[in-house]
Amino acid sequence: MIEDKNQQRTQLSDLGEFGLIDHLTKNFKIKHESTVKSIGDDAAVLDFKNKKIVVTTDLLVEGVHFDLSYMPLKHLGYKSVVVNLSDVYAMNAKATQITVSIAVSNRFPLEALEDLYGGIETAAKVYNIDVVGGDTTSSTTGLLISVTAIGEVDNNKEVYRNGAKPNDLLVVTGDLGGAYMGLQVLEREKEVYKVNPNSQPDLEPYSYIVERQLKPEARKDVIKLLEDLNVKPTSMIDISDGLSSEIIHLCTQSKVGCDLYENKIPLDPQIISVCEEFNLDSTTVALGGGEDYELLFTISQDDYSKIKANPNLTVIGYIREEQSGLHLVTRADTKIPIKAQGWKNFNA
Ligand code: ADP
Ligand code: MG
Question: Is the pTM for the entire model greater than 0.70?
Fold first, then answer.
């Protein structure tokens, strides 16, 4: 939140485009046999032999997707990779390579881009992926980052959104609503800082949810876990826009309905207490709040015994026939329709 006035500021124009690319990417190490040619030629060359390839891309725009007043550039680099990997894992695939494209204005010194690429490098290490290319250009306004992620999956192991069947179990990983509540805390502290720039925010009581917002993780571990348990989900999606929106996507594409049980939605105790503090209903936050990057998937009931003991996986409902619709079964045991409500609408 506080800018260090003594920080070194090297103008990007001092390096030139090629010097900059080289400077930012020189530490990247190749980890995968499938990476035949990485940064440095006109295009990367990848060889996946007989595997299926998945490709996904995301564009992040300053002022729309991130706010640099509380988002450190290192975290932004990390997060911009993670959000893409999450989409690869949601196909039940293994992420192997990314490309990173940036548009920057001369407002950013080299040191800022070093921080951004430090975060990208950390994510590449943690998730074991190769950075194989990108593009660098100037922007007259803010910062733009686009990451494309590539992954591999054995034939017939890929999982789509459209495979859910009536009576399947609806399962979610981790807990929900944290990233949204973390954002609420950060937005509140930003307002306090505007009024009194000397105030030092105490974010300690909010550490879990703030981390969920600033440094989310993708569920690579869950893809490995499902493989180890010998469970292939019938359908899967990652939760970037909030549980209700993702459930609607899964059910619409699968042509099924569902019953989601309010009392089963996994919530961290910190989320519950901060929701109370902000006077928000924790179920509404879990349903509408975005950016948790957990996985939502369905499994056949035959696979229940394989997953039931795992603390990372929570069964939150059942898939129904299409004509029965999509419902939330509340704690009071009433059924209310699940409405489309992406977290961006929810925010407004
Ligand atoms: P071209 O002019 O053919 O687009 P560039 O000069 O933009 O080539 O890129 C040269 C090499 O550097 C390519 O391998 C490209 O993928 C890589 N590259 C360019 N920008 C970035 C970046 N921001 N991050 C990672 N690799 C990059
Ligand atoms: Mg280029």
Answer: yes
